[in-house]
Amino acid sequence: MNADLLAPLDLAFWNIESAAHPMHLAALGVFPAGSPNAGAHAADLLAARAAAVPGLRMRIRDVWQPLAARPSLLRRPWPPLGEPLASVLRRPLAFGGAAREPDPGFDPADHVRLHDPAADFHAAAGRLMERQLDRSRPPWEAHVLPGEDGACFAVLFKFHHALADGLRALTLAAALMDPMDLPAPRPGPTEPERGLLPDVRRVPELVRGALSDAGRALDIGACVARSTLAARSSPALACLPSGTRRTAGVVADLDDVHRIRKSAGGTVNDVLIAVVAGALRRWLDERGDGSEGVSPRALIPVSRRRPRTAHPQGNRLSGYLIRLPVDEQDPLARLDLVRIAMDRNKEAGPHRGAGAVALLADHVPPLGHRLGGPLVGQAARLWFDVLVTSVPLPGFGLRLGGNPLGAVFPLAPLAPGHSLAVAVSTYRGRVHYGLVADAAAVPDLDLLARSVSEEVQALLTACDP
């Protein structure tokens, strides 16, 4: 497997990381145990299977030499129409960038770790989320946490955001487990061969694409500037970084979410976001910060992944930026405001607007990412107030060592200056909210978790008194 240059957004994630703000995403899976030794057996299985998954053998190495000295980095097909022209022209200028390449010394034992029995899986996960991944090795880990009572165990999967986005991380983690109720595979379309050089007939289209990219960049910048005006957040959502982490999880019934959606309108995603807005309102009021006049900006990541696109292993993300109607008292009115905001974003598309800042990474040379990464990370607080992301999970079930995966809580990285991040997944008829917080700034994360459950019930009651 040849080395592969990191896409611009992957490189940005690699360079904005700091000790206080590690850039890994994670998932905490909980399994009922068939025996007291189920956790140890799971750790052995994960280590044995990791060696056979090529994506888990990839480390990230800096590129500090001309590409002529590393010809494998040039062996990439010409990109499909739609890749920014700037990224095409930047390939020969990769000095200061980074690339994925196989680790010749890969040892699964460096990545799969069996821990002592834990009484609280989320407390253990919070401590493990504080630790940076080893950047000299393939940047992922699997931590197996046996339960104290022997009735269950948990696995915390950690993947650096430069190695995988949520969908790619899911694929890598699922490759280590066994599927249940797997649907029959569909035959995929054959991909035509592409040459290294572009068809000259495409040059006018590429030029038009470059001009469109420039206009889009100006539009995104203007939208970001406007979004910072009259921002009404809460001090509870901002903090000085302590380097500590706390996690919590909430489970809701997907049928309840569908009942709310059918009664009040909108999409499942609209309901899940509205639940976050209502939970924040309850949490702020109960802790004494108050929700009056508060409408924090929520970044809602949007996947732009398409079949056969460039950088198949990397991040293909944009985003929507909406104001969460935390100051609205009525649950159904909050849902309606979220639906209107999301519809407006969808109408404009994921390539424009203040949420699409991630697309600007395509216009920065690799050395610029390296030099400006720390500054960009610190600017996250000016861009948005809280991350609310949806992580896709398969429709079929998963098991490990014969033990079915009972619950899975996605965990997002915490941006500098932020005290809270929220991730949501649906799995086997249930919704799983994963909350990550700065432990020093949010010692009452369990209160917020309880508020999520209460808000789901409040919406159900409002829909069907």
Name given to the CATH architecture of the largest domain: 2-Layer Sandwich
Q: What is the chains' assembly state? A: single chain
- Rounded mean pLDDT is 80
Could you list the spans in which at least 5 consecutive residues all have pLDDT below 50?
Answer: 66-93, 186-218, 307-311, 354-361
Structural class label: alpha+beta
- Name the helicity range: 25-40%
Strand order of the largest sheet: 9-17-16-12-10-11
Compute the number of helices.
Answer: 12
Order of helices and strands: EHEHEHEEHEEHEHEHHEEHHHEEEEEEH
Polypeptide structure, described:
The structure is a single chain. Helix 8 crosses helix 9. The N and C termini lie far apart (59 Å). Strand 16 and strand 17 form a beta hairpin. With 465 residues, the protein is an alpha+beta fold. The protein contains 12 helices and 17 strands. The protein has 2 domains: 177 residues, Chloramphenicol acetyltransferase-like domain (Chloramphenicol Acetyltransferase), CATH 3.30.559.10; 222 residues, Nonribosomal peptide synthetase, condensation domain (Chloramphenicol Acetyltransferase), CATH 3.30.559.30. The strands form 4 sheets. Strands 9-17-16-12-10-11 form a 6-stranded mixed sheet, with helices on both faces. The protein has a 5-stranded mixed sheet with strand order 5-6-7-2-15, with helices on both faces. 33% of the residues lie in helices and 21% in strands.
